Structure formats: structure tokens, C-alpha cells
Amino acid sequence: MLQQGFRGALSGGTDHPHYKWVALSNTTLGMLIATINSSIVLISLPAIFNGIHLDPLSPGNVSYLLWMLMGYMLVSAVLVVTLGRLGDMYGRVRIYNAGFALFTVTSVALSLDPFDGGGGALWLIGWRVLQAVGGAMLMANSAAILTDAFPAAQRGMALGVNIVAGIAGSFIGLVLGGLLAEWNWRAIFWVNVPIGVIGTLWAYRSLHDTGVRRPGRIDWWGNLTFAVGLTALLAGITYGIQPYGGHTQGWTNPWVLAGLIGGVLVLALFAWVETRVAEPMFPLGLFRNRAFASGNIAGLLASIARGGLQFMLIIWLQGIWLPLHGYRYEETPLWAGIYLLPLTVGFLAAGPIAGHLSDKYGPRLFAAGGLLVMALSFGGLLILPTDFSYWAFAALVFLNGLGGGLFAAPNTSLVMSSVPAHLRGAASGMRATFQNAGMVLSIGVFFSLMVAGLSTSLPATLDTGLTAQGVPGPAAHTIANLPPVGTLFAAFLGYNPVAALLGPGLLGQLPAANAATLTGREFFPHLVSGPFHDGLVIVFWLAIGMSVVGALASLIKAGRRAEPAEEPVAG
């Protein structure tokens, strides 16, 4: 009987009692595969660069590294609003289904990269951009599909499962990428193909539009100004972490300044355009609703803090803690993902429960409480020694995941339930834009802060450590005054850069014991652990501040006049 019911839900209409669970299952799979791919490349970069024979630490190749990191998230951030709007106009399920198909095709193309060197990197970056279009189609419409399919009393639970699966996917990608990269770097893209094929066929067969579809026109000027402005701004922030003109960072680079200033001006033009068109892609009037505005602000701050945590923990584990505990540098990506599992477990434990309870007791206290729990975990990580006891570290990252899980579903429910049904696609896209933009911002913001922290103490530490091992003073001084971003990327990728910095000529002049010490597992981690902690203090204090401000924003209630009426939802 149950089997027949589900078969009917798969082939029948949206009024079937099991349809909402089919919609939840498929959209959760879509969110999972989209977000896994935002981090699976992150942990696999050393294997990818080795596979295409490209040195990721070469100054000329840093741009390839940055675009592989941020290209997917940047395109997702730019397009999710437009694709949510297209879902409102032409059907959320139609856009969602096309996204699943595009994501699958681009995964095949990525795994078949035929080039080496820079050509191979450009192939991967280009197809990742197209893959991000498919991922944005999934992310922009999944929450709207669920909001249409579930009644208000169950919506928090459904969104909780969906959103927590998406957030957990970014951490599952770390483990999966580490495992697959150990075997073959192409496997990190092949793994998407069977899941994508199944998900695409399932979505086309089982999902149906339940929301109100309203015909409309595309806001071309709004799309253009938004895409140009946001891309310029986020690219400028990201390139600001690269050294320029003798400075440790590139904030004085004319191109970076042009991106930052020009991006802000074009976004201001975008806001003006949106007030002048009849059917804007970004309905700015929604921000008059305090629940919608404050919920998105809290989501942005949480996304920046979460993205920064992810990057910092990878650097901490791969560059310092794992080598100090006997792991070879080649093994560190895999084990970094494994040791971060408590973070994922925390998300999975709290998310669905928080969604269910927020349906009963309201979302605001859960969203605010989740961010305060995150702030508490950042404070614990702040006082943790660099060479920590793993169980203390595991408890703190589990607590952070728990806080993120408590926040995610209630925040999404708060945002999505505050808008009228015909704008849910646009609202879902706007929410996803803030989330994805926060992840890209976290690269620039947290890396910049970490570089600033390293700049104060790393040069003297490097100089002293190298000369103590017999490196001539002038050579040690030159190396110590190199921009610290190279050292940071080395730790991020799980590399020991000392051999590359010294070169074979200088290493060959040193006594064998000193050369072995310099290139061994423990010298570099011991050397950078103190300066790294100095940078970590700055980073985690900012994360605490963001979490507290986000918690306060989550408590803001909507004004009576701004609160849209709840429209009927298919159950």
C-alpha cells in the first residue's frame, strides 16, 4: 500500500499526500550535490594541480588557484536571484530540472580535461563556471519548491532538512574530495555523474509546479548591472589578498581599487534601476519587511563567519597540526576532512530538529540562539593552543556545527515565510545570493585579516628560524620578507614551502642534518604556529562579532504593515 502510494506520488499530481516528501527528497539531493561541489575542489586542489602539471605555489599561477576557489561561488552568487525570478515566471520546477541536467553534463566535461598546465586550469575554470549555472538553478528554486509544497506547520522542518543538507554538503565535500583525490583527481567530478543522472530523471518524472506562475518580462538592465557590480566587487576583494608593489596585500592595486569602487557604483546604479522598472529582478520593496531584511543580514553574516571558519580550519589542520602529529603532507587533505567530521555531525544533528521545533515555537529564538552558540565556539577556538588536544578541538567544532544547524532552518523559514507566494522564487534567490556572496567575501576578508596578522610576526620568526639552521643571513632575511600570502597558501594546500623557498642550490650548501630539518615535517609547522595564532586571534574575534550581530538581527520582528499575508500552500 505504501509502495503504491509513493509510486502514485512519483507519477501523479501535486495533490497526492506523499508528493511533498518526494519534493523534499529530490530537492535535498539537488542541494547536496550543488554544495558538495563548492568544497570538493577546495580540498582536492593539490591533486588537481599535480594532475594537470601546474605548480600552485608559483606566483603566476595564484590567479588560477583563486578562480578555482571562488569561480563557482561567485557565479552562483550572481545568478541565483535571476534564476529564482525565472522560476517565478516560467515555473520553479522547470528551471530546477534544467539545472540538474546542466550540472550533470558539465561534470562529465570537467572530468575529461584534455590539457596540461594553464590550458588545463582554464578548461576547469570555464566548465566550473557553467557547472555553477546549473548549481544556481538548483539552489535558487529548491527552497521555493518546498515552500510551495509544504503547509506552514511543516515548512520549517522541510526547509531544515533541505538547508542543513546543503550546508553539510560543503563539509561532506571536504571528506569526499580527500578520499577521491587520493585515488584519481578526475574522480571528484565523475562522482557527480551517476547522482546527477538519477536526480535529473527523478526530477523530470516526479516534480510538478504547485505555486502561482506569473507571466512577466526579464529585467535585462537589472541583470546586467547586478552581475557586473557584484562580480567586480567580489573579484576586487579576492584579488586584494595578493601582494602588489612591495606591499603584502594588493589594496593599492589600481585594478583592485577599480573593482571595489566601480563595483559599489554599479550596484548603486542597479538599485536605482530596480526602483524604475515595472518588474524588477530584485524586488527591493521586500526589504521594507523587517523580518526579510534582518533574516538576510543574519544569513550573510553567518555565511561569512562559516566560510572563514572553513578556510582557517583547513589551514590549521593541513599546514600545522597534522604535520606536527606525524602525517605526511600528501596525506593532510584527506585527514583534514576526516578530522572535521564533528562539524558536519553537529549540523546534521541540530538542523532538522531545529526546523521542527521552530514550526511549533517560532524561528527567531532558535536562529538567534544558534548564532550565539557559534560565537561561543569561536571563543573556545580562540583560546585553544595551536598544537591542541584533538578532543577539545572536536568538541568545539561540533558545537559550532550545532549552532549552525540551529540557525540555518529557522533563518530560512523566517525569510521564506515573510514573502507572498508569487515572489518566493525571487526571495529564495535573494537569500541564496547573500549566502553565496558571504562565502566569497569570507575568502577576501579572512585571508586579508590572516595576512595582516602574519605580517606583524612572521618575518622575524622566519628570519630567526632559518638562520638557526645555518641559512646565511642575507638569504634568510630575503625569504623572511617575502609576502606572507605565499606561506598562507602553502599551509592551505598542505605544502611544505621551505624547500621551494630555499632552492636546491642553497639547500645543497647546508649540512645534511640542517637540510633534513628544514625540509622535514615539523620545522615549517613549528615555525609558523606562533604567527598563525596571532592571525587567528584577529579572525576569530571578527567571527564572534559577526555572530553576535547576526543573532541580534534575528530577533527583529516584522512590522504589521510590512508582513505579507500567508497564501495557501499545497499540502
UniProtKB/TrEMBL annotation:
| Topology class, membrane | Multi-pass membrane protein
Major facilitator superfamily (MFS) profile domain segment(s):
23-498
Q: Which residues cross the membrane?
A: 29-52, 64-83, 95-112, 124-146, 158-181, 187-204, 224-242, 254-273, 294-322, 334-353, 365-384, 390-416, 437-458, 535-556
Q: Name one GO cellular component term.
A: plasma membrane
Q: Which domain of life is it from?
A: Bacteria
Q: Which Pfam families match?
A: MFS_1
CDD domains hit by this protein: MFS_MMR_MDR_like
Q: According to its UniProt record, where is this protein located?
A: Cell membrane
In terms of InterPro entries, this protein maps to: MFS, MFS_dom, MFS_trans_sf
SUPFAM superfamilies, per the entry: MFS general substrate transporter (SSF103473)
Mostly located where?
membrane
Q: Name one GO molecular function term.
A: transmembrane transporter activity
Please provide the record's keywords in A-Z order: Cell membrane, Membrane, Transmembrane, Transmembrane helix, Transport
Q: What is this protein called?
A: MFS transporter
What are the top taxonomic ranks of the organism? Bacteria, Bacillati, Actinomycetota, Actinomycetes, Micromonosporales
